[in-house]
Amino acid sequence: MATVVRTYEPKFWDRFYLPAMMQGLLITFTRLFKRKDTIQYPEQKYVPQEGYRGLHRLNKNADGRIKCVACDLCQTACPAHCIDITPSATPWEEGEERYPVKFEIDLLRCIFCGFCELACPKDAIELTEIYDFAGYTRDHLIIDKEGLLKVYDVTSKGNVYRRQNRGEAISIPT
Ligand code: SF4
Ligand code: SF4
Fold first, then answer.
1. Beta-carbon count within 10 A of 4 CB
2. Model confidence, pTM
3. How far is the CA of 61 from the centre of ligand 2 (A)?
4. In DSSP terms, which residues pair with 86 in a beta bridge?
């Protein structure tokens, strides 16, 4: 089917630039009294919306033990193949029989889709609000089990950025 493309024909007032300029200035002027969207990062941190998918954490039970039972479901569900788990028998007498001796996530490959969180039957892996993590080498951006458990320690006390904006000193573990 043919498509009709109409060319722009300026109207009478369009031939005078002043009305369009005044209209532009009016928009700028009204913005002066609206809430500002810019923030003074890094002194002030942006607080992402609830449900934001940032840096992962490995959750702990009430007794402080890792919740993960090394079932590999998150690894299987991961479309980026960036989770590496080595399971082992637990050293403790009671409770779960398996746990991960190694649990690594390659953050450079991760696409933060959240599939690992959805696949987990134990509520053991979760994506957090943390977005400002960085590293100088590729190896720095492979987070291990200890790092993931530290993220739990840091994020389980409330939104990290809200607390930082209130003046609390929190370092991001990567
Ligand atoms: S968020 Fe997605 S890509 Fe990243 S580790 Fe989880 S499943 Fe894999
Ligand atoms: S994080 Fe959850 S899904 Fe992944 S291995 Fe552990 S228990 Fe299984």
1. 4
2. 0.83
3. 14
4. 102
Ligand 2 pocket residue status of 107, Cβ below 6 Å = no
Q: Express each pLDDT in 136-169 by its tens digit.
A: 999 999 999 999 999 999 999 999 999 999 999 9
Distance CA 161, CA 48 (A): 8
Domains and CATH numbers, the chain: 56-165 (3.30.70.3270)
The residue among 157, 161, 140 whose CA lies nearest residue 48 is 161
| Ligand 1 centroid distance, CA of 159 (Å) | 21
Q: Whose CA is nearest to atom 6 of ligand 1?
A: 116
**Confidence band, pLDDT 50/70/90 cuts, at residue 174:** low
CA nearest ligand 1 atom 5, residue: 110
